[in-house]
Specification:
- The chain has 275 residues and is α/β, with parallel strands linked by helices.
- It has 2 domains: 5-80 and 160-274, Rossmann fold; 86-155, no CATH class.
- It has helices at residues 49-57, 96-106, 111-124, 140-152, 170-184, 210-216, 249-274, and strands at residues 5-15, 22-33, 38-42, 64-69, 72-73, 81-85, 158-162, 202-206, 219-224, 229-235.
- The strands form 2 sheets. Strands 6-7-8-3-9-10 form a 6-stranded mixed β-sheet, with helices on both faces. It has a 4-stranded antiparallel β-sheet with strand order 2-1-4-5, with helices on one face.
- β9 and β10 form a beta hairpin.
- The chain is globular.
- Adenosine-5'-triphosphate binds next to β2 and α1.
Amino acid sequence: MNPIVRVTGVSKEFLSGRDGSRVQALDGIDLSIGRGEFVAVVGPSGCGKSTLLSLIAGFAAPSAGTIEFDSRPVTGPGPERGVMFQEYALFPWRTVEGNVEFGPYARGVDAATRRARARSLIELVGLSGFEKRFPHELSGGMRQRCALARMLANEPALWLMDEPLAAVDLQTRIILQDELLRLWGDGHAAAAGGTGKVNRPTVLFVTHGIDEAVLLADRVLVLARRPGRIKEVVTIDLPRPRAAQRNTPAMARLIEHVWSLIRDEAVQAISEESG
Ligand SMILES: Nc1ncnc2c1ncn2[C@@H]1O[C@H](COP(=O)(O)OP(=O)(O)OP(=O)(O)O)[C@@H](O)[C@H]1O
Ligand SMILES: [Mg+2]
């Protein structure tokens, strides 16, 4: 089966405006993501995780290499590739409902249809009763739920998520992880290697939480920094649904393995930042 995302020989160099120096954010990235696959991306701060997502989202173009979505080159953003970026705040001047309806509105979906879809998504993420609230009237966890509903409103085939749960407390994070797995279709027919058509969305999920990456993903992409390269791709062969796998010895072994891969890089990153 054709991969839904194909990243071939991708490098990204940034030119710093001030002194003209160059930063090699990504170098020679090759990555294929299968339809319905859940891939997590981990690596130390500055290794190019967000850059990789924004290239696939079409917010920026690679300096070298190609990015294809559904066998077509990515030339800009599109509704089939939904984004949920941590810094991508909700529109503060729009209510929960207004935020969730925004994507369909921008695509010209009629008012009745987008209203009905927003209602059901708001219910799905557990925000019923808060339709008319503004973002500043919501807790951090509720804002994340609203951002999730907003992303889902376009029914994207690909979910590009950049540390979507980093800002919430631990209890909320665990609940949202389970919600996310449920919405994605955890526990239903396997994606990778499965036969027939896969209807579940494809996810590329950046996180600093190694345990979170192992819990959620079919594969964990470990990036190394300066320049950002793929250090290893770890296959997470734990059964689904994953909620039942929390704290199992098998999961602990995988977490330990991923941690051992990024430990040295992380220590180096910290010493460079403080020095
Ligand atoms: N627009 C930009 N202009 C110049 N440099 C940039 C730009 N965006 C990213 N960079 C640089 O590219 C490198 C990778 O940045 P990126 O944000 O992708 O890292 P990251 O892995 O997402 O880090 P973090 O875990 O802290 O979010 C960094 O050195 C960063 O300073
Ligand atoms: Mg980032």
